[in-house]
Amino acid sequence: MLKVDDINVYYGSIHAIKGVSFEVEQGEIVTLIGANGAGKSTILKTVSGLLHPQTGSIHFAGQNIVNVPPHKIVSQGLAQCPEGRRIFLQMTVEENLEMGAYIRLRHEIRGAIADVYERFPRLKERRRQQAGTLSGGEQQMLAMGRALMSKPTLLMLDEPSMGLAPILVTQIFEIIKELNQAGTTILLVEQNAQMALSVAHRGYVLETGRIILTAPAADLLNNDKVRKAYLGG
Amino acid sequence: MKKILKLKKDTRKNLITYGMIILAFLIVRFLSASGNISSAFRGQLVPICVYIVMAVSLNLTVGILGELSLGHAGFMSLGAFTGVIAAIILQGSVSNPLRLAIAMVLGAVIAGIAGLVVGVPALRLRGDYLAIVTLAFGEIIKNIINTLYVGIGENGFRISMVNAESLNLGERGTVIMNGPMGAVGIPKLATFASGFILIMVTLFIVLNLQNSRSGRAIMAVRDNRIAAESVGISVTRYKLMAFIISATLAGAAGALYALNFSTVVARKFDFNTSILILVFVVLGGMGNIRGSIIAATVLTVLPELLRAFNNYRMLLYAVILILVMLVSNNEQLKNMTKKFKGFFKIKRPSDLKGGTARE
Amino acid sequence: MGFLSYLISGISLGSIYAIIALGYTMVYGIAKMLNFAHGDVIMVGAYMSFMATAYIGWSPLASVVLAMAVCTLLGIIIERLAYKPLRNATSLAVLITAIGVSYFLQNIALLIWSSNPKSFTSIISLDSLRLFDGQLIISSVTLVTIAACIVIVYGLTMIVRYSKIGKAMRAVSEDKEAAQLMGIDVNQTISVTFAIGSGLAAVAGVLLCSAYPLLMPTVGAMPGIKAFTAAVFGGIGSIPGAMLGGILLGVIEILGKAYISTELSDAIVFSVLIIVLLVRPTGLLGKKISEKV
Amino acid sequence: MKKHRIFCIALTLVMSLAVLAGCGTSTQQSTAIKIGGIGPLTGGAATYGTSVANAAKLAVEEINALGGLQFELNFQDDEHDAEKSVNAYNTLKDWGMQVLCGTVTTTPGIAVSAEAYNDRIFTLTPSASSPKVVEGKDNIFQLCFTDPNQGIASAQYIADAVLGTKIAVIYNNADAYSTGIYEKFASEANDKNFAIVSVTTFTDDTATDFSVQLSEARNADADLVFLPIYYQPASLILTQADAMGYTPKFFGVDGMDGILTMENFNTDLAEGVMLLTPFAPDASDEKTVAFVQKYQERFGEIPNQFAADGYDVVYAIYEASKKAGIKGDMSAADICEKLIKVFTSSDFSVDGLTGENMTWSTSGEVSKAPKGMVIENGVYVGMQ
């Protein structure tokens, strides 16, 4: 479904991503794990079209999406829930959701909002509230709900557990599983490798801009090197 | 040769800048002595020096300190009128070069004091809000100077805000500043040599500051205020220091400017002049002193070179300005030059040592 | 009675500043750039209306529509050619380009319409309003200007609050990158903002020259700077702020002239501005700047 | 920082060209006398410079068509700025200017006349009207009245004709011309049969709303408003006074000329306005009619007083050159001395558009009689 082939990305003169290739198949949860600064978010931004690779290709649903502007990539069914949530703090909860469905037609939006409220009842309670007044967990729900509004076939989540209490983290990962079961393919970027690998089918390990290891998630969980580096023993 | 290569990269860069100015001065001097220089260019020598100093000093605020100022001409104005007053009062009592020096120093001092007065409240603000306060300051200065009458006569030095007659200067008094008519009958004390010296002094101050402990603190403030604060850098102190030095140099430049023309009016130092100097800084590169010098020179000369185009002159100037901005910020072009440069890059010892890791 | 009539003059002048300031503030809010060429778009709008009425003999209303159409188009063209290529450049680079555009517009106007001033025929030809036995006279231009300002502010607020493009503008102004991830075309949104701001500039130009009927290539420069000041005064980026800032600036200017000094009126206006900014560093209705560490 | 390097190199090249640009100026001699002109052709004051430049061009063409003495005119822009004006002056010097017709505006005029005095280049300014332009410089002459003279003449006129007893003044306190006239007017008013009851000002930056100034004049019961300003702000004052229903007499100076020919201006508003001006475009004398017609054909606009000044300057130089026997191959300094002698000689006078029998004193000031005009039915009528 998504095929990234040998991309190189630069920030000015810094070579951030060095020849990375990976694939996500329909119906999978794939996770990219790695330390802070390994280049995980950079990869997602590149896939979304916010950054452009110097070389290499990215194919989504068979089409090359390198140099396609980000808003067009969204309409092809690829959504990203960015790192740090990045919800619109000055807008209401419902307006945030409407923004998520910016590419959809007016009559589709109602139904999509209803679906999101069904999955996240808390958001319905706070629909008229300014997003800036929500708690961290609620904000994460809103960010995910917003990303779902475009009805993506592939959802990319960037650090969904960041800054959340452990109980909320579990909740978020439950939701990720549910979404996947409902048919959404997911590309998950996480620092919390334990959690990520526990829900994912496959995983890639990233180190300073390179993929150093790839295997089914269960294998990675048992891999010594991975355990030492990312799973705290 | 080896010794020069061993010097720190910054020092080497600064030496090139000084060398460039000295070389330019000598060349112009030589051409001038051999009569190979046009009146038009000779007439512009002092203004060019003034604008170089203005650009370098503004670069201290905008490029190095990282705060946008839209009122730099206000400090120039204060320096200009202070300098004129000093030069006229001292008429006949000291030699001309000394008179010019005193005028410039006094202009610098007054502008520096104004820098303090404006800086203390204004530097609490940030970004565009600071910019608008400096703009407002420039307009206030212009407006007040327009209503100021200053003279010297039987009763000594007098100031009024009503009109020239209310100064009561007596028969042999001189009106120095005559409200909107500005200062008239200014002795032409400015010379290219004095402009050159002022540039060298400015460079000495700004380059040394840039490479000193204080300079690094100022740049730390620019790059990350909170981080700088957290390691114990007094943000206000360093900001104010840079701002005052910038104002002081602008004051000296203003005095030199005024003493090059027989008349000067407050209107000259308006928003448009502030913007003009800002254009020099941005085109030359933020924080790039050498760039400011070159941009100030070229953009001062450019409108004169376009005189052949008559009515289309200023239109052409506008088009050139826009195109230069577009070209110098073009991503593809930037990448191209990078590759080009990489191809020809000469490996210097400092580059081989492994970069900036240890200092 | 004197005070009242000064106050009305001030509100009228301020309403014009406010309409111009709205253009500044919208563009700033979304593109984060100071569009210093805005004042010169006003001038173009005024000339368009002038040509349509004086040379072709169109009705005033039709001339305003023409002016708005031309200015909207001009705004889009300027944005495409001069600002869009600088989307990733520093804000100062864009500022300088805007100044280049301002010079360009002024000098092209000089070549097209010559430096000789033209007298603008007011587009409003109603009778003045006489109150208190003729002691207080309010000209129809004043009334129309104030009404136009209120309608425009109301209309813009509604657009920004409820329309799809308005919401997109808010999203872009808050977080460009996140907006892109929502499928919002940021470039298009910025273009639309420029178009609206420039269309407003045309209205401002016509009203400015109706109230003060002198048309020259430099006519927009000073009101442009004053309106920019007004936008900052009210809190740049805020629509009600631009209106409040504009009107206050006009009122302070007129009252300062009337009761303190006509000679120092500019100094008074700018001093008040500085004091307000020292007390409220982001303007009267400005949002607090949240600082990123 | 590095991205600028190539840009800098390019700029350096331009700079070197600038230094060398002057080197090529040839020393070729032509028989035509090279006349330089300086004035604002761009910026806010462009209308004045453009008028002078146009009319001067017209005059030079006429003179050259006569076949005798030949002129070559080079008019440079100074943006109404002293620094730019000196640059323009130096450019003209490189071109080989022998006589200067300029500058159009006062502040640049003071700066340039100091240079021209040192270089011994004869200068006749069409419209830089401050006495400071000519003061202490024997080779600088003015064709227009000085500002103080206009102030005195205005006060005299108002007093003699008893035009008003309570006078309000609105002037531009950021403008040397306007302030110069006002100050002299105010000091003249002391022993006259009228009183100044209200004085208000504006600046170029606040020249839009005049409601306060007009209200103050009305509150002070002024029956005459003196406007020592240019016609552009004056047109706004007339419009706003009309909207307020305030109808005093308005009295202007030569800067007021141009108000009737301002494109699209409703001349009804100027009905009854009085002004002192040496030139009226609808005067019926042969010279004016011919000039106005030619100017309009050529430039599509009705000439104002600045154009008339520009035209007269060229003709004054022409008359004087003929009298002094000046030729194109003389040095500027020689021409200067000869022209000074002619201009200050008692038997030299010029009949121009802006005055009959204009003569000059050694101080450089012109002597001609200002004409009082009143606007009736949209045209100037001589005031007696």
Summarize the structure.
Chain B is mostly helical. Chain B has helices at residues 2-6, 9-33, 39-64, 72-89, 96-122, 127-146, 192-210, 213-223, 225-230, 235-258, 271-284, 289-305, 313-328, 331-344, 349-352, and strands at 149-153, 156-160, 174-178, 183-184, 263-264.
Question: What tags apply to this protein structure?
Answer:
B: 359 residues; mainly alpha; ABC transporter involved in vitamin B12 uptake, BtuC; 3-stranded antiparallel beta sheet; globular; D: 384 residues; alpha/beta; Rossmann fold; 7-stranded mixed beta sheet; 5-stranded parallel beta sheet; 11 helices; 43% helix
Write the layout of secondary structure elements.
The complex is a heterotetramer of chains A (233), B (359), C (293) and D (384).
Chain A: E1 2-11, E2 14-24, E3 29-34, H1 40-48, E4 55-60, E5 63-64, H2 70-75, E6 78-81, H3 93-100, H4 106-119, H5 121-125, H6 136-148, E7 154-158, H7 166-181, E8 185-190, H8 193-199, E9 202-207, E10 210-216, H9 217-222, H10 224-230
Parallel strand pairs in A: 3-8, 3-9, 6-7, 7-8
Antiparallel strand pairs in A: 1-2, 1-4, 4-5, 9-10
Helix pairs in contact in A: 3-6
Chain C: H1 2-31, H2 38-56, H3 60-83, H4 91-113, E1 118-119, E2 129-131, E3 136-138, H5 140-162, H6 164-174, H7 176-181, H8 186-211, E4 214-215, H9 221-234, H10 239-259, H11 265-279
Antiparallel strand pairs in C: 1-4, 2-3
Helix pairs in contact in C: 1-5, 1-8, 1-9, 1-10, 2-3, 2-4, 2-8, 2-9, 3-8, 5-6, 5-8, 6-8, 9-10, 10-11
Chain D: H1 4-21, E1 33-39, H2 46-66, E2 71-77, H3 82-95, E3 99-102, H4 106-119, E4 122-125, E5 140-142, H5 147-160, E6 166-172, H6 176-188, E7 195-202, H7 211-219, E8 224-227, H8 231-244, E9 249-252, E10 274-277, H9 286-299, H10 305-324, H11 332-344, E11 350-352, E12 355-360, E13 366-367, E14 371-376, E15 379-382
Parallel strand pairs in D: 1-2, 1-3, 3-4, 4-5, 6-7, 6-8, 8-9, 9-10
Antiparallel strand pairs in D: 10-14, 11-12, 12-13, 14-15
Helix pairs in contact in D: 2-10, 3-4, 5-6, 10-11
